[in-house]
Recover the amino acids of this structure.
């Protein structure tokens, strides 16, 4: 079995926490039910299955799974009804995270994003992927490969803030952020380079306290100090990146699939920016990935419950609100 040293450290932390109360929404497939059972057995999750009870029990019987010890909240046989019930559970303080079952992304996210009755926070929803790559010395967070197709500058600020909150929750102290682009210099032909420069300027003004923000950087430079030297770039982040912010969802997906495809690495993620983290497994995700996403959610919820001010790094420039920006 492939070693996952970075994930294992998070698993060891999560084992010490109380079981995370989760709503598994519309779980009518084997994998959703198996995740609830496995998470409960391992002590990570205290799941409530939210959906049409008769169909949930029928799906479990057909899969040969014993869900007799799991709580079930019966709803009408309609995905939106199940999602709305899960949203109510969150608003009432009964669950701390949501897991997608057998429903489309839009059927889950639309009620959550509803400005009147949903779970939106002050920022837009975004997705971050945790990467544990074999023989790579540190874990990575990559945003946003799943939700925001072509984010503008304001959206990228939200995405970065969401991702940094997760980085801190996972124990990344003073995370290094690489703002990815096609070039490592500002070029009019590539708008992402000027937006990366603008985000770096925001960091200089204290927008992202506790983080070292650098960009634009090409992916090879972000992941390799040797690549930076080859291109004659002086970079504090090169080869030391903790967070990769891609310019578009397409670019993030390409980086994600390239890194995992070449290395066989693990990629697990969360939807961020709502009142609670949301686990959105795809049908092709292995159980290892699904459990890893729940571990991320557990640590994220615990960090919110025990929130402390972000420590200012020792080498932070004076008067910058705690942000650290590469020179």
């Amino acid at each position: 079995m492939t070693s996952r040293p970075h994930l294992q450290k998070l698993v060891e932390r999560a084992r010490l926490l109380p079981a995370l109360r989760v709503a598994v929404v519309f779980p009518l497939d084997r994998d959703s039910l198996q995740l609830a059972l496995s998470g409960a057995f391992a002590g990570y999750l205290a799941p409530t299955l939210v959906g049409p009870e008769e169909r949930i029990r029928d799906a479990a019987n057909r899969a040969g799974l014993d869900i007799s010890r799991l709580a079930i909240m019966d709803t009408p046989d309609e995905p939106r009804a199940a999602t709305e019930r899960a949203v109510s559970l969150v608003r009432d303080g009964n669950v701390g995270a949501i897991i997608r079952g057998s429903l489309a992304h839009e059927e889950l996210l639309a009620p959550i994003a509803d400005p009147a009755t949903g779970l939106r926070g002050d920022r837009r929803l975004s997705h971050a992927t945790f990467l544990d790559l074999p023989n790579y010395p540190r874990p990575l967070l990559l945003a946003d490969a799943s939700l925001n197709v072509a984010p503008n500058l304001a959206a990228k600020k939200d995405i970065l803030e969401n991702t940094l909150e997760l980085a801190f929750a996972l124990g990344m102290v003073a995370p290094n952020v690489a703002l990815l682009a096609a070039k490592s210099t500002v070029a009019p032909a590539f708008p992402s380079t000027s937006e990366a420069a603008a985000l770096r300027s925001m960091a200089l003004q204290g927008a992202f306290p506790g983080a070292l923000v650098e960009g634009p950087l090409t992916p090879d430079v972000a992941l390799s100090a040797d690549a930076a030297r080859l291109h004659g770039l002086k970079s504090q982040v090169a080869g030391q990146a903790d967070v990769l912010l891609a310019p578009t969802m397409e670019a993030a997906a390409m980086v994600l699939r390239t890194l995992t495809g070449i290395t066989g690495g693990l990629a697990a993620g969360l939807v961020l920016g709502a009142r609670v983290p949301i686990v959105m497994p795809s049908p092709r995700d292995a159980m290892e990935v699904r459990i890893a996403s729940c571990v991320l959610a557990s640590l994220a919820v615990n960090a919110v419950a025990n929130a402390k001010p972000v420590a200012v790094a020792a080498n932070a420039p004076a008067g910058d609100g705690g942000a650290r920006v590469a020179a």
Q: What stands out?
A: The mean pLDDT is 92.
